[in-house]
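Appendix B. One record, verbatim.
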Amino acid sequence: MRLLYSEKIAQMTAGRTWRAPPVEDGKGTYRITDMSASERPRERLARHGPQALNTAELLAILLRVGVEGENAVQVGQRLLHAFGGLQGLQRASLEEVRSQHGLGEAKAATLKAAIELGRRLTLEAPNEKPAIHSPADAAALVM
């Protein structure tokens, strides 16, 4: 079953406040620069903090740019799908990540380094447990 563009956007933004879809290029893709400045991942991170972004958007900030036909957020979504999530991306070798369309040595190394920093952070404070005060806090831990 083929999804309509609006349904794809709804899936991509599930759990977040609805935003108007960005301008399409006719192929179901859009450039981040076509989005309003307040909706771009970097600007949202600056305004609302990193917890306001989904994992694909955080990856997009690390990737910086997409490839022809895919913006950086879509590349992030593709990587998460290809590796079965962030843990799969963490387990993948540098070569496996680099072999993905649109990722060269530098982008693959950036992603692997960022994931490793996150892993090391958890090792530095093993007794530090996240506080859960709401269903949204619990969801943020598993998403």
